[in-house]
Amino acid sequence: MDIGEKLTILAGAAKYDASCASSGSDGKGVKGGKKFGTSLPAGVCHSWTEDGRCVSLLKVLFSNACRFDCAYCVNRASADTKRTTFTVNELVDLTCQFYRRNYIEGLFLSSGIFADPDIVMEKLIETARKLRTDVGFGGYIHMKIIPGTGDKMIREAGLWADRLSANIELPTDKSLQNLAPEKSGKVILGAMKDTNEIGAENVEDRRKFRMGGKDSVPAFAPAGQSTQLIVGASPESDKTILNLSGALYKKYMLRRVYYSAFSPVGLPGRDGIPDPRLPHAGFSGPEPSSVPLVLGTGGPIKSLILREHRLYQADWLLRFYKFAPNEILEGEDGFLERGLDPKTAWAIRHLDYFPVEVNRAPYDELLRVPGIGAKTGRRIIETRRSRSLSFETLRRIGVVLKRARHFITASGSFIDRPDDPKRIRRLLVDEETLQPLLFEF
Ligand code: SF4
What we know:
Strand order of the largest sheet: 1-2-3-4-5-6-7
Bound molecules: iron/sulfur cluster
Helix content: 25-40%
């Protein structure tokens, strides 16, 4: 098989990993004309580095052969799909060629488990090591930790990769046992724990052994670790998912949890019969705001994409707005509201917290106001040092008054008093998200 065909197969097989924001995008362009803003050659996606830069990555599997049979995965052992594997040299050459042509700034490398986990991990490490040492590749490398690999391998992987990730995939051990019986939550969490401990040890060593203002100890995975959770393949609520994410951020210092709406693409099931363990065409969930309604065959269902979007918004509240998971979802059905972003939903449930006086409130209180973000919160603090804030000033510094107006006062004046939750909800609900959710594929 030539390298072009291998690339097509192994880039296609990697695109369901959500850890790159534009995974699998073919971009949209003028019909018949040159495309603009499209993801360039096969397998190129985007991600963000530690300092917030957007980088394009070559996103591929080393191999799509796999001993495991995870029901939600196109590469599972029982799938009737063409299999192939790169050699280390092929992948190193390909990465260098793409890099030299300016198609990519880095590599996102994962693999099916085609052999013992340590052997697979060694191949990924060898690829990264060769890139760094033989050809002096200085681009970004995101490397998957293969479930079951030992801490020695993780230690070595982090020397060459900027970021490591062990995918937890499903929120509970019960679902893992049902859909990915060869995987174990304990093993995956163990890899995250090891990564975190090695990283902390490395930071300490680098601090201790810094000589003459220079680093004498190489950095271990300086962009930290992340993970991916599939949403909607199993019945867990958003509450379970957010509790897990909150714990992972706290315990293992994860930089990101990526949420990936379950997609039935490429999962016809054995003999064309849908796998009964998975949501499939014709499956009806009880709640439009929660589990999938009807699945098509061309991609994740719209309600799941919306659920993924709400989870990302809630995750943002966990990471940057000092919300605890149990504040975002308080004793409801365990699912985020479909029609309101989670911060607005929290504010409407807690009208007694408002109004917040923008000329006096501390930063943390400002962050609780819908329409005020981290950046605008900082601008408010900065601006009010020299003058008192009016609604017009707030608008100019970026506060979204359409949302914030119900929850703030400026020098004691209201635009709108926070008195009637039903009325505020009616005004702020995101109508578009309440449209019927059945999708044509
Ligand atoms: S281990 Fe599971 S998720 Fe990973 S490639 Fe194999 S079948 Fe897919």
